Amino acid sequence: MVDRLVNSEVNTRRILNVEACFGSTGQQLVAYGRVLVGEGVLVKMCRKKPKPRQFFLFNDILVYGNILISKKRYNKQHVIPLEEVQLQDLEDEGDMKNGWLIKTRLKSFAVFAATSTEKKEWILHIERCVHDILTRGGKKPATEHAAVWVPDGEATKCMACQRTQFTVIQRRHHCRACGNVVCGTCSSHSYRIPVSKRPVRVCDTCFAKFVSKDSKRSNAISSEPGVLNEVSSDSDDEDKSVTYDLQPTFYSRIGSAEEKKNGHPSWNRHS
User: Fold this and answer.
1) CB neighbourhood size of 69 (10 A)
2) Alphabetically, which GO biological process terms does the record hold (predicted)?
3) Peptide bond into 265 cis (omega under 30)
4) What is the CATH number of the domain that holds 32?
5) Which residue, 2, 6, 61, 105, is the most exposed by fewest CB within 10 angstroms?
6) Tens-digit pLDDT profile for residues 12-22
7) Residue 188 lies in domain
């Protein structure tokens, strides 16, 4: 089905419509050979709390953004190359059900579908697209991914020292290596971790592990608490309440009954 949509008029119209919905805040999405496979709303675990985000699955990239007006207007566009993506299952926990992790080199996060059926549909289509693009390019799946950040609300005190209580003055910081929420004192170093091109904030525990593996310490630099730049992985945190349709639409269906039953290829449940 994807092959039939490549460079077709209906596919081009769909992609142009996505571009129009993002307006000048988004990048050009029309590209030779690119197909819009599906779209829909998933609840993304942001730094502060879960929030709905509009997702667009293409055969080579995954795009998502904030919903301003459902099906009409989005902003804060994020574009993820599918060749970097790895999925990991999440077990249902309380109200947070039908979720999985989307792990990439620069950013990893949890998303949740409305139903188990929709979760399976998303997983099958994403995994199929990842498999196809890696196969075409003769590439192997990515092995290094950014840590998933622990949401602010799940940590009232530093996860490293277990003493510092977070307040307006005592700010939360995230270790870029493990994703834990820590205080400034327990994250006074930066280090160029494998998934980053520059030194980033890491907790003291992770820093010690990195240094022990790097006798020359060529990647390590120290910094006093509070002077490291804190760049949030959730610049899309603040938005207004909107109404939206959760049910996804897929323009390219997974082909065989066996694929629908078992998935293609099998996805990572525990890594």
Assistant:
1) 11
2) endosome organization; endosome to lysosome transport
3) yes
4) 2.30.29.30
5) 6
6) 999 999 999 99
7) 152-222
Let me know if residue 205 belongs to a domain: yes
Cβ neighbour number for residue 180 with a 10 Å cutoff: 21
**What pLDDT, on the 0 to 100 scale, is given for residue 225?**
41
User: Are residues 29 and 105 both part of a single domain?
Assistant: yes
CATH number at residue 171: 3.30.40.10
Residues 6+ apart with CB under 8 A from 6: 33, 35
Query: C-alpha 76: how far from its chain's center?
Result: 14
Tell me how far apart the alpha carbons of residues 267 and 102 are, in angstroms, rounded to a whole number. 11
Above 90 in pLDDT, residue 124? yes
What is the model's pTM?
Answer: 0.79
Report residue 219's pLDDT band, with 50, 70 and 90 as the boundaries: low
Q: How far apart are CA 207 and CA 209, in angstroms?
A: 5
